Amino acid sequence: MQGGPRIKHLDDVPVEEMLRYQFADGHTASIWEKWIEMSPRYFAFWNKWDPGALSNHHGHTGDHINLILKGSIRCGDIVCTAGTHIMLEWGDTFGPWEAGPEGCELYGFIAGEGSPFTGDQQVFDDLLAARGATMVPLPMPTRLPPWVMSKFGANKAVNWTTTDGQKY
Question: SUPFAM superfamilies, alphabetically (predicted)?
């Protein structure tokens, strides 16, 4: 218990580049994330997706909600626009997702510690090939908590490369 509310403004939370894709025409698209609150019991975050940014088929360890704030994300044949609420229970998988032409901003909350796990990698590989995209390795984010960091060695949901060259 904290003894009262913790109040944060999104402008005061650092941003991390989580994923970056290089497309055949040379342009890139990234997913940017701000971790508003993190604990072993929950994870609250904000994402900004560049137009055309992609996310693999995956899930999280905890019930998970997303609320689309601006723009749109496509999941298969479904386009989720501003105001769309997406509910995923622990163990549900989703994606791959693709940001619309205007990009996307969303708010997410995961009950539980929130570690990601991969789903059907072939589905994502097929989307990457169709879009002429490759994932660009990035340094590990600097603010991940220890209970999440300890799981990435066995978890392939993200494609990060640490400064010493270790891939996650």
Answer: RmlC-like cupins (SSF51182)
